[in-house]
Design a protein that fits this description.
heterodimer; A: mainly alpha; 23 helices; B: 177 residues; mainly alpha; elongated
Amino acid sequence: MSYEAIAVLMFSTFMLLLLTGQRVFGAIGFVAAAFALALWGEGAIEMPFASTITLLNWYPMLTLPMFIYMGYMLSESGIASDLYRMFHVWTGPMRGGLAVGTILLMVAISAMNGLSVAGMAIGATIAMPELLKRGYDKIMVTGVIQAGSTLGIMIPPSVVLVLYGMIARQPVGQLWLAGVVPGLLLATLFILYIVIRCHFQPHLGPPLPLEERQQITWSEKLRLLRAGILPLLIIFSMTGLFVMGVTSMVESSAVGALAATLVAFFNGRITAQVMKDTLRKSLAVSAMFMWIILAALAFGAVFDGLGAVNAIEVLFLEKWGLEPWQVLVLMQLSYIVMGTFLDDTAMLIIVAPLYVPLVIALGFNPIWYGILYTITCQIAYVTPPFGYNLFLMRAMAPKEVTLIDIYKSIIPFVLIMLVGLALVIIFPQIALWLPNQVYGS
Amino acid sequence: MTSIARPMPRSIKAYVRTVDAVNHAVGSVVMYLALVMMALLLFGSLTRYVFNVPFVWIIEMAQFMMAAYYILGGGYSMQIDAHVRMDVLYERWRPKTRAFMDSITAFFMVFYLSVMVYGGWSSSAYSLKYNQTNYSAWAPPMAPIKIIMTVGIALMLLQAISIFFKDIAKFTGREIA
């Protein structure tokens, strides 16, 4: 059998196993172990275990449990409800203002945490009921929260970029910096859309009524501004200290975890039970992520051993005569289609051994590609039929929001994200400018 | 259902109870490693930046802890069903259908984990025999962490088998608790 055929067989077995609903790490690990043994015999039996050593020696991986723990701590800390209240009062008076405030809230949460789940939970439980009560269109609100929460994986710290860095063997510090401008760009595009749409259709996002505004005194407005200080301190103690070179990236994640714990403690939210629940959930989620990475590394090692990437490159460039950028657009399109069916971790398993070496061989920047990958993940999170955020939203949103509402709500935001993706493809500097400034090109 | 379901054999019940209890206990201890890692990393940055005393062992120690953390915690996370599945079809099935399918596809997970245990075993034996050290400034011996990881993977394997029994009990409608 040719190596290309073996590669195709590996991927199709993997897809098939995924459909059975077995745990993703089990499906991918089985394919890796079985093909390693079938291809190279008994000598390859240590191959799947070898990936534990790779993971062990990969320093940035330590940020993962820290950020997961921090995410749970942040949702306990009470920071989010104060922050929401601040944006509510300050942006509420304009048309669509509460929705704009929600996007800003999501940006702040994203800058404090590396997963989209924290933003999702906070948006659906704190912001959503308030917006619905104030007569905001439910489809608009649902879309805002879903799209806003995906910023969590783009704006540093980002766990998705840590995983990408691990598998693509790229420096995480540069990847994180590269995510800053694209993340803010997407947030700006979301806000522009809300403002413009609500300007022409004010019933979608009515401003806060005058009586309610008059009840809020200036002293309260100013007091609420202080709610914004704590998150800024957390962000500074993490990202700030890291950029200034005081702490390493991994150390800043520990600083962030400590800061979140302290805030929760001083807000009186920590009990023995909260602490235990947080630690338990952090362990479960960290183990889940790590085992997928472990299995994906083994899969990637087998795939590398086949040398199939080379064959695919020859196929695209020489047999089909495609330009490198055409291959890139093709890859991204196929990836968006896959993203509607697979979750981001499963996508990473495919992108890692297949796309990343190809991207490098084609002469593209792997840091830049990490950002394209992340935007595609954001789209995958919210696109039906399968997306983490879709399921979470259904679980967390008030009863009046139906599944159809959720599906409908994301259409404009997916279009905006596609625009963002196109912009970053056409102008790589959007992603690369900041890391070049900091690290030199 | 009119037929009175036979309970699962006593030995299987005892196995499931024991393995679940062990993994739950291990998970309840290992979860505190998150705090230990955090403290270690903070201590490392403090000594290096404030007192200008870098300790080469801190980073590696934290890395070893992380490996112990997620591998020893693997069995527990499996027990509480924290591992993601692609639920495109799975979600639509009845609980019994899910249990039936899981009991078949459990083979894949058990196969992978068995290969992992075997690999861990032989890799640990190698490290013990040749006193293998990590390729770093601190150069700690590799055998202890490899043994810990192998034990963790073995615990996961036992948990996977326990879940397999529970799935069988579920779709045949038998008592297992």
